[in-house]
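Replying to the earlier thread about multi-chain prediction with a worked example.

Input:
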Amino acid sequence: MAYDKFNILTSTAIPLPIENVDTDQIIPARFLKATERKGFGDNLFRDWRYNGDDTPKKEFALNNPKYSGKILVGGKNFGSGSSREHAAWAVYDYGFRCVISSFFADIFRGNCLNVGVLPVQVSPEFLENIFNAIEANPDTEIEVDLPKQTITLKATGQSETFDINSYKKENMLNGYDDIDYLTKMKSEIQEFAAERPF
Amino acid sequence: MSKTLFDKVWDSHVIRKIEDGPDVFFIDRHFIHEVTSPVAFLGLKSRGNSVLYPERTFATADHNTPTINQHLPVEDPLSANQLKALEENAAEWGISHWGLGHKKNGIVHVVGPENGITLPGATIVCGDSHTSTHGAFGAIAFGIGTSEVEMVLSSQCIMQPKPKKMRINVNGELGFGVTPKDVALYIISQLTTSGATGYFVEYAGDIFRNMSMEGRMTVCNLSIEMGARGGMIAPDEKTYEYIKDKPLTPKGDAWDTAMKYWKTLKTDDDAVFDKELTFNGSDIEPMITYGTNPGMGMGITNNIPLADTVEGGVATYKKSLGYMDFNEGDSMIGKEVDYVFLGSCTNGRIEDFRAFASIVKGRKKADNVTAWLVPGSHEVEDLIKEEGILDIIIEAGFTLREPGCSACLAMNADKVPAGKLAVSTSNRNFEGRQGPGSRTLLASPLVAAATAVTGVVTDPRTLLA
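Result:
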């Protein structure tokens, strides 16, 4: 499914300073029953966001009116657990285009890149700076520059570079995905498959 | 150049290497289920693509199927809709489909090996992170997202950077009452849930050599819980014995040819890993978790660690214990338990039911415990009956349910109520994993059985003859 191109994103951010945020928290399994990709943002962080009677939990960051933006900032080991791409869909569908953490689980990171959410891994110190900056001023802006692979706290100018392989970077910049690439390789794949022992 | 087992299988499946990018990686076997495949089929259609090799994809319904009255229509309309979508998509594209009611139906990671779909040296993916299970056979097997499910359907390939390599050696002997599940929970407790992120693991050493194929599956299944994409064990005579004569394994000349290849599947003596860890089997006790991720586990006779002694953030640790309603320093033994769940792709095979029966035989289920005993497949269910295990568990006051993922992720009606405490043989103790507000303790089938008959967390060694 096509996604919006990513170039430079400047936005405020929503902080979630918790480690090991797993995909069951991002989107609980009982909300995986759709057969179409829509509406997952409504259930993003469902059980942290709402009480059992569907009233919002006021203290949770997504419900706190002082926080907003297209960037989600999470603690170390963000996205561990299940392979459900629904977690990345929920993040995108809610309106986030970028997730920042000091460490991502592999499958979640890959799923994000496949659906147009940029995972930005920063040093633990820089992550701490970001959390502190947002706590001091929720309106603080973060600039994520994909072409230059830099992330900058606008207020202080503190900046760090981040990694992304050039293939995925090109995809994100252009809104391409892997299927576009693989479709062009069909005959090469068929030749390879013909030689497989099983 | 010397290669690891992982290198040999990975490198032989790379069709193209992209400079500063992923490998185009060929997939031999693809499993699909009802939850993570519908959107992939929609994507396939919207792009005008078709399924390139339908014979390489296998569909089974498991994640949200009911575990009672499977002969009746599925009550939950959303679940029924997903099951229908799987059936229709499989029929449309000529994909084999073991749906609800089919005699081969069961949990994808149980029925794959049972039917010989899982083979050494194969690459296997599924939109489910516990696909790592199949690594027990010397396959490279791992979970993928739905975009990748669509890639495999349309091209039989995915695009993956090659992970780093880690070897985990466990040598020596296991103590009395210590099972493969305990070995895995012990390793995860040592590495944490992110300790193997970025790596693919090979398990080596006496403990795994001496382990049954089902035990190896339990260990490889839990690789993802320490962050590894997957884990694998070199195939040996036990592997060949297990897969020989399964319905879909190669036969005749094809078997002989495959065997020649399989015999090459071991790590060369001087091959190098990016990381290597060694543990001693005799250090492992029956394990239990006390927190909200699988890395928060300990020997069952220990007390919950104090916050200032654990790695990572104190706030996160305290949040976790707060959710569980436990205190630092608590003993787990003796805590009253409301639910016991035996099942899942981790521990839903016949050896798990034999272990459970070995403890409950001649005893009675505790009155305060609700127990869900869920076989991983109809084949497991049949063995439970044939071997007389059904009689033992019924005599002890338990009942047997029908196959499926069940309370492991509680997508069906098998939900642990809010606040209730469950001892589960499954794989995740995340907040709400077994139902909103549920609290989960992960453990082996022996610990589950001992707890089910006493009503409190119990060291199985105290009940084993």
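Chain B touches chain A through 81 residues (CB under 8 Å).

Feel free to reuse this layout for your own posts.
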